Structures are given as structure tokens and as C-alpha cells.
Amino acid sequence: MICRRLLLAAAGICLLGLTPKLAGGQSSPSIRVLLVGDSTVASYPNPPMDRPDLTGWGQVLGECFGPNVEVVNRAQSGASSKSFILNGNWRRAVEAGPKYVLIQFGHNDQPGKGDRSTDPDGDYRDYLRRYVSESRAAGARPILVTSVARRTFASGKIASSLGPYTCAMKAVGQETQTPLVDLHDRSMRLYARLGDERSSDYTAAATDRTHFSRKGARVMAELVADGLRVQVPELARLLRPSPRLTLPPVIPMVVGQESTLEFDAAVLSERVGAFRVRVAEGPGTADSVRWRYTPGSQDVGMHRLRLEATDASAADGPVVGRGETWLHIVPARAGEARSARLLLIGDSLTHGSIYSNELARLLSRPGNPTWKMLGTHQPADAAPEVRHEGYGGWTWQRFVERYEPGAPESGATRNSPFLFPPEPGGKPKLDLKRYFAERCAGETPDLVTVMLGINDCFGLNPDRLPELDQGIHKTFQHAETLIAAIRTAAPDARIGICLTPPPNRRDGAFEANYKGRYPRWGWRRIQHRLVERQLDQFGGREHGGIYLVPTELDLDPMAGYPENNGVHPNAAGYRQIGRSLYAWIKQQLQTPPTP
To answer: CATH code for 250-330?
Structure first.
């Protein structure tokens, strides 16, 4: 079987791994993983006629494991944490002799389920404790999985009634020191990113917002697998190796402007050319390294783009991964009658001012809004109308914390331009209202872009996924602090989070920069995980004025970089970043604010 890692609006890629062998060529013994839960987990070998595609995520979870793992799915439709025990299902299930037990209950524990219902603050916790203790007594390691979200929307936002049961399971996990995969949170974020319409094919029928189609089940199974990689590190080696495709839910495009999607930027693979990618649905063409498309005026609107990948080692190999996103194509004159004030925030990529100069050039052509860039920093290479807050070596943390008494108040790298002197005995104050009032002549931005993350995460260890994720989590805490401050000072501004660009494809470029201290493959894995987490952290937040800018896809990792620099593009690469930002700005000026 194959594993399809489906992320965001997309499916990701999981290529087949090697079967571990013992002496004499025999396969290693199977490791048994037991699943217990309700209908969202259960298997349906004979689905009903009205839902012929009905599939539980447990039915396809085995596709994500290597061949030496056996997944035994004993989940039962209609089961609650209580009924599964009282009906004898739990006793029979644990007799299978598993090494790991995944436990998901909650949907049928809710009120209104008759004798199956449980109290999230009472017997629900007691039953979960019993699953944990009896798993351990049987020699298995229990893993709690919070209830997957229903695909239910209210006023355009994803909604859930499972919160009390999710909180109760987390409390039991902490109390009993049991690993927990927060599938509820992961699925909520996924649905929030996709929205109602773009997630409609994830469930088994238009009238069923709880149970999955085969596609939706694979999406959820991969969310579980991804959680296992982090929460149960010893299971990571049992999951299939996954060069993973990361696509944002939407790619903005402008009529008459070519856009590309670099496969090496989208897929994590140590060996270049390990797969072939083809267009399964949507406009444009693909060669061995990229997809490209120049839309015409007749193409304005939303278009689905589906990609399929095959193993390049086989001439007619099977599909080993699928991915999808949506192209939002706007007219060439989108936003022409409007005005826009821009604030660009970033590190050395922004300090170089090349992509901001290109953005200024594109916005100055006919058919665009009147515009102005705000900011205190105007490096020597910046065009006369270009200014920003971009500083070499800077991080999210520096922008919210860096203040040194006696340093220049603005326009210098020693102090954050957003921090102001403390009151006597106090701390420096992060004050975007004052920044706009005093340093931007009272003007507030309509659009803010932030391109940070490289310096925050460059030194993390890609071989230790839990530590890597913890480092990214800490980075995002600083990010949320700055975003909240911007939102308070400019409540109507739309904030674009730029997805971190991929590195130079050349190993020699990293050797020239870092003399063996930081290899390309190490940073590539960090950067790819950072993008995955950015998609998870900031996706689906359009109602809060937060958007994703796909600045990682249109940058050619070969032609867009010099031969001797691992993370700083050449002029052509910076212009590609500017092109992506321009398309996002045009999209935002074309689209009314989300209510």
C-alpha cells in the first residue's frame, strides 16, 4: 500500500520505504498497532449504498506504516468510551497482543446518545484511565487521540461541540503521562483553512458531516501519522519515509503574469529527481522540475490545481502522492481605483530591498492602485519610494523584544522600531500605535507582509523532530505577539505571512557559506517543517485578517540563487519573490474584507 500525506487544501507525498530485513533475507517480525474508537475510526468493507465511499481513518492508517507494521482496527460504529468496554469489545480487542494502542472516543459520549453518553468531567475520564492502565497491563503503550472534528460551519467558521471531551482527554493524558495526538485541533485547523466548499469532498455524503470519504479518511490518517511522528518518536521509524509535498490552500495569480510552482520547493526529498510530477487537473503545463501558467482574462476566478507524483525509478510507476490547491486569478487591473499603504517587515531578505524594489516597479505600472510604503528603514539600494522594516539577522523575537538603552530609536538594527523607551522602572513597550503615530506620520497600513523565520530556526536540529517543533512553537509565540500588536494598532489591515523560501539546491553554496557547519539537507528539512507549521499555524485565519503568501513556490532553487550563497537569492530570485507578493496584493485589493 502507499501513504498519501494530505495537508491543508492538499494531499502530500509519501514515497515507499524499504522493508527491513533480517539475516537470510527474511522480513522482520510485525509490530501490531491496535485502534479502538467509534465510527470515524472504524473500517467499512461493505459500505452502504447511499455512502459507497464511506471510510474510517483507521481503515487506511496502515498505508502510512512500513510493511513490518500490522494495524488492527477494532473500532466500532456507534461506540462510546463506555459502551466499548461494557459490550466486551475492549477485552476482545486487547487480546490481539498489540505493542501500541490508539484510543479515540468522544462523538458518542456526548449528551443525547442514551446509555452510551458520559460526563466529560466524570466517567468519561474514568473510562479513559481504564484504557490507559489496562493497555499498560497488557504490555502495550497507550496513545490517546482526541476526537476528529465534524465538518460543521457556522457563519463561515468551523464550529465544534467536542471541546469538553477534548479537554478531558488532554487532562487524562497529562495526569497519566500518556502521549496524545490532538486530532481534534489538527482537523479543526484543516477545515478552517479549506472552508466549507473546498472540504466538501472529505465527507461521505452531502448530508453527512461526520464520516469520511476515502479521500477524507486518508487526510485524517495522515494527520494522525504526523502527530505520531512528534508525540511518539519511536514510531517515526515505523512510518513510511515521507518526502512531503506542501501546498498552500490558495495561490494568487494575476492575468498576464506567469506563475510557476517549483517541485523542488514544494517537496521534501533528499535526492533531486526522485519523482515525476504531472498535472492531473487544472490549467498550465508541467515539465520535470516545475509547473507554469500564464492566465488570460477569460480565466479570472477560482480554479483547482491537482498534481500527481510517481516514482521516477519506474517508467510506468503507480501514483505515490497527490496534492491540490486553488488558483485565485484576478484581473490585470485589479485594485486600480484603490489606494494601498504597505508595511514590509523582515530580515536580510527584506533588507536587501530587491524584492521590495520589484514590488514597487510592478505596482507603478498602469492598472494598479496608488500606493505608499511605510517604514523607517531605507537602505542605500532601496528605490526612492521604497522603505520597510527589514534588517539582516533579525527574528520574530527581536521585533518584539530587542531594545538597548542609548541605541538609536529607529532605523538601526540595535533596536526594534516597534519598541519604545520604558517608563521609570518598567520594560520597553511594544507599541505599534505609537510607531504608526510617530514614525509613519500617523498613517496605518492597509497591507502588512512579514517574511521572518530563517534566523529564528536556522540553528535547530532537524534530526530531533520534537525539539525542532518546540523551537518552531517558541518562534510562533513571538509571531503571535507581534501580529496581535499590529492587529490592535491597525485593526483593518490584512497581514500576509510569507512562507519561508526554500534554500539553494547546490550543496556547494552551503559549503561556501558555512564551511560544513550547516549542510543544505539539514536546513532544507528545517525549512520544510517550518513551512508545514506555518501552514498549520496561520492558515484558515482569514476571518482574523491573517493570510498566507506562497513566497516559497515561485522561487527557482537553482536559477534563483548564486553559486555561493545558501539562503540569499540572486536578483532573479528576489524578483520572483516580488512577483508572488504582487499577486497577493492584487488579490487582496480585488477581494472584499472577510466579515
So the answer is: 2.60.40.10
pLDDT one-digit tens code per residue, 264-314: 888 777 665 667 778 888 999 888 889 999 999 999 999 999 887 776 666
Q: What is the pLDDT of residues 338-397, one digit of tens each?
A: 999 999 999 999 999 999 999 999 999 999 999 999 999 999 999 999 999 999 999 999
What is the mean predicted confidence (pLDDT) over 83-105? 96
Q: In 260-275, which positions are buried (b, 16+ CB within 10 angstroms) versus exposed (e)?
A: bbbbbbbbbbeeeebb
Residues 6+ apart with CB under 8 A from 42: 56, 58, 59, 73, 75, 76, 77
* Residue 324 DSSP code: E
DSSP 3-state helix, strand, coil percentages of the chain (rounded to 5)? Answer: 35, 20, 45
> For residue 436, which of 410, 407, 473, 468 has the smallest C-alpha distance?
410
CA distance 440 to 388: 11
The grid cell for 293 is 501558467
Q: Per DSSP, what are the bridge partners of residue 101? A: 34, 142
Q: Read off the DSSP letter of residue 19.
A: P
Assign domain 339-590 to its CATH architecture. 3-Layer(aba) Sandwich (3.40)
Q: What is the dihedral of CA 266, 272, 274, 279, to 10 degrees?
A: 40
Share the mean pLDDT of the chain: 88
DSSP state of 239: B
The domain segmentation of the chain, as residue ranges, is 23-236, 250-330, 339-590
| Class of residue 87 by CB neighbours under 10 A (exposed 0-12, middle 13-18, buried 19+) | middle
Mean pLDDT of 317-324: 68
Of 477, 392, 481, 473, the closest CA to residue 430 belongs to: 481
Amino acid, single-letter form, for residue 394: W
pLDDT, one tens digit per residue, over 445-481 is 999 999 999 999 999 988 877 788 889 999 999 999 9
d(CA 198, CA 195): 6
- Provide the residue count of the chain: 595
Return the bridge partners of 305, or none.
325
CATH architecture of the domain with residue range 23-236: 3-Layer(aba) Sandwich (3.40)
Cα gap 292→462, rounded to integer Å: 31
Q: Cell numbers 502588512 label which residue?
A: 448
Locate 368 and state its grid cell: 494598479
576's enclosing H/E stretch is: helix 571-590
